[in-house]
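Changelog note: in this version the structure field was regenerated for every chain. One regenerated record is shown below for reference.
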Amino acid sequence: PLSVLFGLHGKTGVTSVTCHGGYIYSTGRDGCYRQLRLQGQQLEVLRKHRPCKGLQWIEELRFTPDGDLLVLGFHADNFVVWSSRTGENLHCIPCGGGHRSWSYCSSPSAEAFAFVKCGDVMLYRREAEPCEQQVLLASLHGRAIACVRRLGAVGAPGHATLNVFVTGSEDTTACVLTLSERSRAAVPLARLSDHISSVRALALAGPAGPGDEGLSALLFSAGGRAQIECYRLLCGTDPASESAVACQVIHVASHRLDEHWEQKKNRHKLVKMDPETRYMSLSVVPGTSSEQLPTPWKFLAAACSDGSVRVFGLLEAAQKLVLVAESFHHQRCVLKVEAFLHTQAGGERHLLCSAATDGSVAFWDITSPIADATDALHRAEGEMQPLALGTPLLTVMAHSCGVNSLHVRETPEGQYLVASGSDDGSIHVCLLEVALGGDEAAAGTCLRVLERVARPCAHAAHVTGIRVLRPDLLLSASVDQRLTLWRRGPGGLDALSTTFFHVPDLAELDCWEVAEAGGELRYYCVLCGQGLEML
């Protein structure tokens, strides 16, 4: 053999291998099918798909001429034909379960399923019927959308420029989709189904800018059951597809806090970490592969419901995602994290801002933990014990209760505007100055608050989205379905305009700017909750 993959579908075995469209697909009795490709003469697993809950025994895949993928398998004692396009069972035939000889055949005029039961050959046959059902509006997710990120824009010839977004939902999936301003249609490109609980947070890393092949970026998704997944997304134009855009997903790495527990020797003597820990927010640490720190490792900060702020390291080439540092300073659920980079003549400092349910916003210098972690990872080839993050440089009591939105933006003067929104409808903005001590050994990073502005009743409900668009312009969005622009002046925050949006239970917003032909800037935002809206 030129290439062997052991235990690809676990102990229960592989049931079929299919080649289609330049890819190889394998099915197994672990309830998954996997997409592979040949790199040189080696098999490389791109990603796994879990078609539907309960379908533990997958026997075969059928690619139909109209572009649907049918998954054939056994659910308990029924034979099931499941459609990937509509996400529903087309047939469910009682036959006594797997471990029997069977055959399925479908044509435009009829379908037939034959199987052996108790020594008898049975045949089910069905004539084709006209489809009575019409989908007026396809759903993106089965439940509320918890997070959204804009990947970038793809310009297809003959089409308007399409925005590509990633959404995460309580239905345990993440979806890569295009949203067209002209047709107002959302078209899913790929669905990521590796999570076992809700997807609460997304973060994008790497050059999401248009490359030769289109958009390329690393996507981190995290949520319930202390689970983080990492993918490489490649989006490019494809004239043959419905949206004129195609997305290639490559699964890079995953991490579960409790999966290392089973390998510990004296685990009966230790307190097990809480498997119900949820990741509430993610932020990629910028500038870690710079000239001063030439490392292939990328770092990710996470806010956790068990009261900790954690930092993970990713080595994409080795497909490793490692916990490198943590701190339980907040001692209550951490809701938001935001990492930013401070560059000055004295060098670069990696700073982190975290916010918790008591309304506090803490600022950390994580430069030395990241440098120490990089050294330890290089020495131990990607294995290490988590380091301590230490204590924050500064804590600001910004609100009286939980901080549900947070954004940091650097001003032209090299200072930082930190905006936050809370459960009580209030908005808080502070202006920070970073001073570096002359002695590097003393790790002399000092933060000073130059200015603080609070607007107590900015909204009538939780403020779940906030963005500093410019040093003098803020955007806030709330569960009260109002999107408000604020001008930041010497006297505080003044409301400029309010727009009502249609998405109930707003969970998050993402913003970006587009330079128009005349040189003027346009700001766009996407809102998610019980639906998705772009403004």
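Spot check on this record: The domain at 14-127 is CATH 2.40.128 (Lipocalin). The chain has one helix and 40 strands.
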